[in-house]
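Ticket #4471: structure output looks truncated?

Reporter: J.K.
Steps to reproduce: submitted the chain below (272 residues) through the standard prediction queue, then opened the result file.
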Amino acid sequence: MNTICAPNPVCTAIETPIVSVIMAAYNAETTIEASINSVLSQTYPNWELIIFDDCSTDSTASIAEAFTIAEHKIRLFKGAKNSGVAMARNHAIEKAQGHWLAFLDSDDLWHEDKLEKQLRFADEAGATITYTGTAYINESNIRYNYVLPAEEMLSYKSLLRRNIMSCSSVMVRRSVMIPFPQGYMHEDYAVWLQLVKLAGHAYGINEPLLVYRMSGQSKSAGRIRSARMIYNAYRYVGFNKFIASFFTIRYALHSISKRTRVKLGTSYSQTD
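Returned output as attached by the reporter:
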């Protein structure tokens, strides 16, 4: 693993950040620039962005490297081999200095006041894990009318039914964070389930401060594949085959309904 940073002493002598933004990247040359710019545009200034390139075969790393030269708060690391998004995030977390970890995938976007609002909200609530509502765009940057709201207090029981904690909206205290598990599963969902169970609930800001890019090439695109990954996540957190299968079917029905609503722009009910 090699650190790529601007050849400037400031790069190693910066103020300790409050928020470490974790970005795993793989073959994201068409989207990563916009994702990084959404961090640069944040109204809250005390952050660092840690990008871990998981052996991209396109120009993802070179695009990210250009940002490190211009901005000392951005650091780029590169893996020796492709290890998957879970390990990429774990490696980035190991380099984090902030009190909070905020996750942003290399194809998603933040509203400019996302960190400012989320930090203030977390401080007022005394929270260890928070998330926000989600808006959606397609691969051509066209925005859908649908917005996935956030529950102000998301319980473990509610999270078991469906994952409304979009990874790129989540912010967690580094002191309570656990590693993302490797394997064929929705690794972020497995982690949120464990953290929310320990905390009692997650706190949600009911504003679409995240803009999630829906892609036909994303890991979540295939319904059968996604169902298998959800099933494995339930098994990972300790449920037996029968219960995991039941939860997976229920989750899949919610997921199909959500994707339909996104494309139709219809509303979402908290009781769904």
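Triage note (M.O.): checked the attachment and the full token line is present. Residues 133 and 208 are 4 Å apart (CA to CA).
Status: closed, working as intended.
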